[in-house]
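Lab notebook: predicted structure, single chain.

Context: the supervisor wants predicted structures on file for every construct in the current expression panel, including those that have not yet been purified. This is the next one on the list. No modifications to the sequence; it matches the entry in the shared construct table.
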Amino acid sequence: MAISERTEVSTAELFDGLRSHFGYQLKCELDFKSDQERINVNKNALKRILINLISNALKYNDKELAHVEVTLEDREREYAISVRDNGPGIPKDMHEQIFELFKVLRGQDRFGQQGNGIGLATVKSLVEAMNGEMRVNSEQGNGAEFSLGVFTKVCHWLKIYLQNSHINPCGH
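Prediction complete. Output recorded below exactly as produced.
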């Protein structure tokens, strides 16, 4: 399946799969919230994105009890997805650099493992391949929130169709 191909996905099944994937993590709380029962996305790409973001939120968390909240909302023209944690945060001057290939912000994670700087670069590439946008909102000491918008199928095809006329029906 090409990354631009989408299928109908149950958010409950997606979230249950993520819960079981991270079920081995001790001392963590994972909250999943969605206003949709089903979404139309590339399931494998979205799952890979969320696994990476949740994994980073847990590995680099400096609290005794790591808390990660994943939300998914339908905002008419896009699915708005966010992964928020209660970790140490990311300095503002690093917000762009963390998406660069092989860029590592911290020397070691909470388990003593060295990061390789591939994860967030891969996440950003996947989001962009899905015709989406990615942002980080964070301050040192106040956790981090990674937000992504993935355009809905109709908007995606309208955007491609009108691309040559320089009209963007999605407002982006």
